[in-house]
């Protein structure tokens, strides 16, 4: 007997709502069969069987709230598991005959499932964007055969074994979850012909999905009933377009449009002869959603200052050759900014904190996100434990993360957990801007281009290399005095870098 338990659902998620059971008590199940769907505030999660057997007692019913590790039901294994399968009705036998798994029997070769890899902490689903191999094509173990887009990065799916693509069991554009089977590889070269006939199988599922209403989870049904809305009208981001609890909450809490606007058709407008419509990538959709959430959620305010970059420019010019000779990397501006921000964050900890419900979480570590623009969009990889790193260490870390960003090799782990963000619009020529927060962080510093400007120094007008600095902060947690103090401390550190490095 094996317990069916609630898996780890992601960072900061401690409970879920039981959606629907896809198997009934007494049904025969195989390892990796999806048994039940759980809903969190963010995504739908599938719980699969960990072994072959028979579904025994179901202890958690649809609509129940369960915590991580809670028992949902049990699988009875062993020889007893065969009897329910033999006793299955003719309807079940007909379903088994129609499964695409029959293709390997025709080829005579063993097959290996192609499984969606783990996508990273707190990422529970992605979109299968591209198949790089067609049914019947030969593949080698670990060769990339498909790509999956998550909210943050693109993931490659490797071939699990040498052989031939026997079939794809899902279609491009389908939402998939870690551990789910998306296809099979046949070890026999003779599999090339037979699987090709079963390749259209994923598309055959489309009419079934289109017929009738979408399944509605208990949590969505409850929220819809309380708000007096039709759950079928809620746009879904879950599996097969199903609405999640988060979708329902967003829908009922959204500002209501005027009657005229509500009556307007929801279909996309027609494009003109000189226009082109391109669907946003999953990454771009996430960027748009998160930036809008930051504006809607935080009490965002921006304060400005300027800094004389002359001292740092002189320091770099004086020691650049020796620095490169010793460390193998150039001394840039960003490492000074990271150091200056860390020192300021230690003095003004609210800027390094976040709001969690009615609590404030103060972070006694300094993981600085560095915004990087790529062809696919803005990403924010994180330099971990910046306070323990030298200028050379910071420069190397930033260079490595920048290369991974440009090559599309950033992982979820590279971009999670930042406590504060620095964005450098100056590399594009920006003179001044108001950066947007990266939730749940409470502060982001905007750098800009260095410009020769006349300033008064000791009563004299001089031309100095000046840069505008902008600190956007969440006014719910950071007071104006703290924000100004933080920015002044950054300015002081950059204008006198020797004191910053000596920590005096």
Please supply descriptive tags for the structure shown above:
504 residues, alpha+beta, OB fold (Dihydrolipoamide Acetyltransferase, E2P), Chloramphenicol Acetyltransferase, 15 helices, globular
Task: Write up what this structure looks like.
The protein has 504 residues and is an alpha+beta fold. The chain folds into three domains: 1-98, OB fold (Dihydrolipoamide Acetyltransferase, E2P) (Beta Barrel); 101-211, RNA polymerase II/Efflux pump adaptor protein, barrel-sandwich hybrid domain (OB fold (Dihydrolipoamide Acetyltransferase, E2P), Beta Barrel); 285-502, Chloramphenicol acetyltransferase-like domain (Chloramphenicol Acetyltransferase). 30% of the residues lie in helices and 27% in strands. It has 15 helices and 27 strands. Strands 17, 20, 23, 24, 25, 26 and 27 form a seven-stranded mixed sheet that branches. Strands 1-8-6-3 form a four-stranded antiparallel sheet. Strands 5-4-2-7 form a four-stranded antiparallel sheet, with no helix packed on it. Strand 18 (354-356) and strand 19 form a beta hairpin. The chain is globular, with a radius of gyration of 28 Å. It starts with a strand and ends with a helix. The model is unreliable at 79-108, 189-211 and 258-265 (pLDDT under 50). One of its GO terms (cellular component) is cytosol. Residues 82-91, 100-109, 199-210 have a biased composition (Low complexity). It comes from Hyphomonas jannaschiana VP2. Its cofactor is (R)-lipoate. Pathway: Amino-acid degradation; L-lysine degradation via saccharopine pathway; glutaryl-CoA from L-lysine: step 6/6.
């Amino acid at each position: 007997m094996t317990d069916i338990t609630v898996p780890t659902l992601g960072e900061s998620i401690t409970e879920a709502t039981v959606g629907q059971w896809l198997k009934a008590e007494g049904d025969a199940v195989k390892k990796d069969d999806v048994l039940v769907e759980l809903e969190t505030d963010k995504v739908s999660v599938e719980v699969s069987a960990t072994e072959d057997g028979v579904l025994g007692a179901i202890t958690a019913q649809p609509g129940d709230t369960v915590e991580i590790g809670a028992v949902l039901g049990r699988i009875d294994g062993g020889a007893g598991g065969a009897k329910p399968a033999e006793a299955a009705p003719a309807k079940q036998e007909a379903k088994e005959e129609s499964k695409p798994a029959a293709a390997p029997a025709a080829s005579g070769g063993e097959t290996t499932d192609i499984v969606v890899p783990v996508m990273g902490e707190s990422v529970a689903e992605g979109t299968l964007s591209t198949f790089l191999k067609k049914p019947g094509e030969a593949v080698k173990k670990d060769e990339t055969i498909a790509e999956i887009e998550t909210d943050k990065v693109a993931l490659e799916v490797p071939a699990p074994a040498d052989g031939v693509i026997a079939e794809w069991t899902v279609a491009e554009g389908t939402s998939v979850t870690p551990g789910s089977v998306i296809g099979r590889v046949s070890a026999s070269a003779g599999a090339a012909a037979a699987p090709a006939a079963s390749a259209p199988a994923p598309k055959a599922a489309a009419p079934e999905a289109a017929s009738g209403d979408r399944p509605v989870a208990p949590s969505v049904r409850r929220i819809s009933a309380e708000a007096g809305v039709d759950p079928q009208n809620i746009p879904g981001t879950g599996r097969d377009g199903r609405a999640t609890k988060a979708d329902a909450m967003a829908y009922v809490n959204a500002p209501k449009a005027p009657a005229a606007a509500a009556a307007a058709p929801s279909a996309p407008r027609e494009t003109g002869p000189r226009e082109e419509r391109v669907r946003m990538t999953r990454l771009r959709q996430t960027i748009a959603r998160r930036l809008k959430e930051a504006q809607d959620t935080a009490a965002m305010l921006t304060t400005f200052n300027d800094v004389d970059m002359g001292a740092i420019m002189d320091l770099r010019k004086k020691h650049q050759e020796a620095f490169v000779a010793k460390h193998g990397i150039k001394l840039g501006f960003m490492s000074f900014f990271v150091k200056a921000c860390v020192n300021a964050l230690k003095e003004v900890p609210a800027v390094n904190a976040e709001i969690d419900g009615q609590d404030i979480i103060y972070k006694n570590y300094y993981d600085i996100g560095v915004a990087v623009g790529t062809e696919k969009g803005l990403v924010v990889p994180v330099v971990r434990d910046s306070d323990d790193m030298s200028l050379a260490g910071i420069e190397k870390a930033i260079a490595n993360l920048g290369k991974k960003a440009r090559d599309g090799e950033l992982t979820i782990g590279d971009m999670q957990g930042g406590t504060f963000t620095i964005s450098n619009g100056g590399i594009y020529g920006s003179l001044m801007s108001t950066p947007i927060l990266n939730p749940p962080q409470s502060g982001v510093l905007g750098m800009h281009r260095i410009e020769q400007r006349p300033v008064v120094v000791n009563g004299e007008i001089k031309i100095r290399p000046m840069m505008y600095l902008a600190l956007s902060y969440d006014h719910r947690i950071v007071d104006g005095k703290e924000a100004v103090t933080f920015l002044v401390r950054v300015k002081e550190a950059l204008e006198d870098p020797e004191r910053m490095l000596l920590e005096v």
